[in-house]
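ok trying this again, last paste got cut off
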Amino acid sequence: MFERSKKAAWTLKRLTAVAAVPALFILALSLICLSGLNEAHAMYVLSNDGPIHVDELEGDVFLTDGSAGLVSRTSGSELNLAPGMTVTVTHQDRVLSAVSQEETLEQLLERLDVRPSPLEMISVSTRDNAMEVCISGEFVFYEQFSTVTEHETVYRYNDSKPAWQENVLQEGCDGQYTEVYEIVYQDGQRTARQLIDVIDIEPASTIIEKGTMENFANNDDAVSSIITNEDGSGTITLENGQTLTFSSKRTMRGTAYTSGGSVGTRTASGTAVHVGVVAVDRNVIPLGTKVYVVSNDGYYVYGFAVAEDTGVRGNTIDLYMDTNRQCIQFGVRECTVYILD
């Protein structure tokens, strides 16, 4: 995922001039005249979750949701304040504070003896139970237009994993292309609008690894039960609820080997040696056969494996292990080998 930005941190500083509301809120911009305040223009920046709602405003109201742009609509009247709010008023060099009563914004400003000039604008932002009123001749706000690109799901197939197994290798996310416009209002009129930032977040695919090997499990998948039928076939049930079938089972002499010395790192099948590979006499068990191996003394479960190597003769199965110490500990044991379908 990549992000490209065309502007530096100064953009964020200007944003705080009016964006006092969380980004997920719907913002309302209202440019109306308050005749009692010497015809100063009021710019209301409001949250629909706050004490004042968009539907309570009247005049020329503009809504923006960050993607559809500014949409004109009309309704309303003077801004009525909910009682009990902490109101901070900034005008020129003065910062005043008051608790709202059942009054309009005009009445509150008159109570504080604040009288904006006809060329000044009033910005009102609300959050929780507090309100900030800023009176100035210029305000800047930002408008975003975004398009979303849905991410894809990509499957990577693994022929060494069982067909029922899926692993999410990477969680995906949608991409988003956003253009940010700076809009300047001076003396109650919009005087500038320009593109100041482009944010391009590319989509990231969800990547899922999916096994393709039928009737097989990973070497260390735990088994909950094995049921053998009268003809020697049966079913192996894993602890995760998956089931595998076997056509027969046989008792074999079990040994162990590891790489090093005269033993290389490639099997007779051309694959890399690893736990889950067993060596067999191909005249007894064909290469590629899937098996499940346990020792008959009950002390060792080798698990699921594939006959990919040779080097033994007769009724012997040689189990690959990571270290020579493990091979010595295993020694020679009589094992039951289930021949999976």
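PB: full thing came through this time. Helices lie at 10-15, 105-111, 324-330.
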